[in-house]
Fold this protein.
Amino acid sequence: MRVIARLDIKSQNLIKGIQLEGLKVIGDPNIFALKYYEDGIDELILIDCVASLYGRNNLFGIIKEASKNVFVPITAGGGIRSIKDAEELFLSGADKVFLNTSAINNPQLINDLAKNFGSQAIVISIEAKFLKNNIWLAYTDNGREVTNKNVINWTKEAIDRGAGEILITSVDRDGTRQGFDLDLIKNICNVSSVPIIFSGGMGKASDILSVSKYGSCHAVAAGTILHYNETTVDEIKKIALKNNLKIRI
Amino acid sequence: MKKVIIINCGGNILSLLRAINQFGLTAEVTDDKKIIEKASHIILPGVGAFKKAMDILASKDLVEFLKNTDFKEKKLLGICLGMQILLDSSEEDGPHKGLGLISGVVKKINLRPKDLENNLKIPNIGWHQLKKNLNYHQGILEDINEQDYFYFVHSYYAELENQANYLLYINYGSVIIPALINKDKIYGCQFHPEKSGKPGLRMLKNFLNI
């Protein structure tokens, strides 16, 4: 199990909202990135969360800065639309890129990126909102735009096309501290042959235990509770270790 | 005189450069044979597909050059895909020929039903502690111990002809995956030392001190 810090970035600021809305400025992303690295984080996810909305991209500069003294993997995305974008992101210090909006608009891009950079470097980000009875719909543009994609089917399609990892965010739980959407996790795990990163709703360190029964190789991403210092990387890992999860300390 | 060069076969070389800078050293990114000839340490990073990396080397006329280089003298470190292309061939979208500096083939990780039941996935993405093989030796592994974790992200692995060519390995389910391979002064690691926190940096530093 990996513990990942998720940093949502707008302009030059680390921000955080609730259900991807009402974004509040928290601070300088570089300072947080470095702190989490020093604290023993397993990976960072950096998200330019308004890039696809405004069709602009300041991600490269952000990644270059935030990755400066960080020697753990960095997954980055937001507004990636082409092989060239991805290439530039790798040159800026990212190890993996993720796509959401552009993959939904043009699924062939997943195949093209996987062929160019290998599946292991391509993450598909899915923003999932509950509709009814085990059905979640995929959203784009930071939870703003609904699509007709059923999250479970879209996960399968993305993997078939070459996604090496899935970052799944429960929009309903994001920023709420209510714990992970375990129904969503269960349904995704049933169809996935690749590792999954669960995001949205982590409210306390011990929430990591709730997802552990769905697979030892998965990862959880925490935002709110780390940024607001309600728990620490160390505390999350100690609880995991105490409960016999395979975790790096 | 220490001279470190990086041959760019794609991927995130920025982190590698920054790691080397942390040791008070600099590295030059180049594909110029005249410069590579003068290097004491060559690093071959790589991300992506096997064939693409070999095509890049071929387009820079470096395949024969590397094959003919004396690595009893010069030091070479392949990282991830850069390690895989040290081998004879790969079955990734292939077969395709590699550099053939260490005997073996690159194969897709083949999980057994039991591994899948245990929720193992491909790619293997995550942190692993390394196990020592019998011919384990110090040098590149100074101050590295079995409690340290290293970061892996790969779908293919090295199956070596000669077991003596790997120093460290991991068990990924029922598959033995060589983690650090070695012959003469040629080293290759499946994990990313530049992404493995402090132990990874120590190993990189050790390599540059050989």
